[in-house]
Amino acid sequence: MNKIGLIIRREYFTRVKKRSFIIMTFLGPLLLAAIYIIPILLALHGDNEKRTIAVVDQSHWFERQFTNTENQTFIRLDDISIDSTKKLIQDGVYDIALYIPETQLNIPSSAVVYSMKQVPMNVEEHIRDVMKNEIQVQKLIASGVDPDILESIKTSVNLSVIRMDEEGGEKETFTEIQFVLGMVLAVLIYMFIMLFGGQVMQGVMEEKSSRIVEVIVSSAKPFQLMMGKIIGVSLVALTQFVMWILLTGVIYVGFSAAMGISHPEAISAGTVMTQQIESSNIMDNEAVQNVLNIVHSIDFGTVIVSFIVFFLLGYLLYATMFAAIGSIVENNTDSQQFTLPVTVPLIIAMISAIYIVNDPDSSLAVWLSMVPFTSPVVMMVRIPFGIPIWQVVVSALILAGTFVGMTWLAAKIYRTGILMYGKKLTYKEVFKWLKY
């Protein structure tokens, strides 16, 4: 154990002192915080440019329908050709020209917008909505239907989803929030497994090609070397992950305080809550209660503990296989034929996650969360939806047992392959090593 500890310390401190580790440790939180900060900045300092829009309505159907807004001023131009209007646009008199051609029979359903610059999407959408609403009103009148009656029967439905348990308890769930949380956790596990699992394989290949491993195995067994390298890199991954969480939290709180946002969790809840936040960024009592309901609907204790367990076990399982591959090959080109079968289950898990979030209790979701090679990703998608705790425990035990068995198999490959040079191996020969 003392030799494994020395190898762990060597692997850990060698990597945490690298410039790339330090850069990504501080750059990662900035990128994560940007996901929260940039949408707020865009919302606060978005399209505030004031524009003057000239309306040339030759059909005379929309002469009084375009009213001024905070950033848009509509000016009617009567008895003027569109060519003259375009000249005014070129001279900078107006920013945008809206041309509605004359029609002989029906109300026009098409128009043309002229501008020297790219027309913002919100301006296009506003013009389109105004024309569409007026066309609908005129069609209703032509059909003998009062538009006010039709408007009065429009109703919005507030649908609450309540999940019941076997004891009769009830708990409101928010599918959109659970969907986002599950996908984020799944992507994090996938990213860390691929990133740091690849580092284990790369480290083994470098030591093998430089013949340093011959010196190391003279004082430590190959199994000790493999386990020390795997655990050392896992501690590096855990360190970087914890630093990301802490630094992202500091940036998150600091930015919220600087912007005067007293309830930043309401914004991170996503677009589900944006309609309940007032324009002055002060939430009313109903919005506050909705935010608290969202927070209470997710068992964060189970989510955090499960994430740590499946992250560590999933990483250890794949890192063991990556270490075995690194001992077989001597360069990245040769490693491709062996890494593809290892990474395919993770890719399948990520693709399946898109469908699993739609029905996290389906048979496919349950089975994929029990298969150890896909369970780290699939379980993170399902857990925020509140699955039975026995499924989480069984999946973790299967994953842990598979890690132990895979370690035994990988050690057989590692102890033989780590000292082999200049020979391109095949699957058949690797299987022979397992029988030694």
Task: Show the helix and strand layout.
Elements: H1 2-16, H2 19-44, E1 51-57, E2 72-76, H3 82-90, E3 96-100, E4 112-115, H4 121-142, H5 147-152, E5 161-164, E6 170-173, H6 175-209, H7 212-216, H8 222-259, H9 264-268, H10 271-274, H11 285-297, H12 300-328, H13 332-356, H14 363-370, H15 375-382, H16 389-417, H17 427-433
Parallel strand pairs: 1-2, 1-3
Antiparallel strand pairs: 3-4, 5-6
Helix pairs in contact: 1-8, 2-8, 6-8, 6-12, 6-13, 6-15, 8-12, 12-13, 12-15, 12-16, 13-15, 14-15
Structure write-up:
This protein is an alpha/beta fold and 436 residues long. The protein folds into 2 domains: 2-42 and 173-433, no CATH class; 51-148, D-Maltodextrin-Binding Protein, domain 2. Helix content is 65%, strand content 7%. It is built from 17 helices and 6 strands. The chain has helices at residues 2-16, 19-44, 82-90, 121-142, 147-152, 175-209, 212-216, 222-259, 264-268, 271-274, 285-297, 300-328, 332-356, 363-370, 375-382, 389-417, 427-433; strands spanning 51-57, 72-76, 96-100, 112-115, 161-164, 170-173. A 4-stranded mixed β-sheet has the order 2-1-3-4, covered by helices on one side. Strands 5-6 form a two-stranded antiparallel ribbon. Helix 13 (332-356) runs parallel beside helix 15. The radius of gyration is 31 Å and the shape is elongated. The model is unreliable at 262-284 (pLDDT under 50).
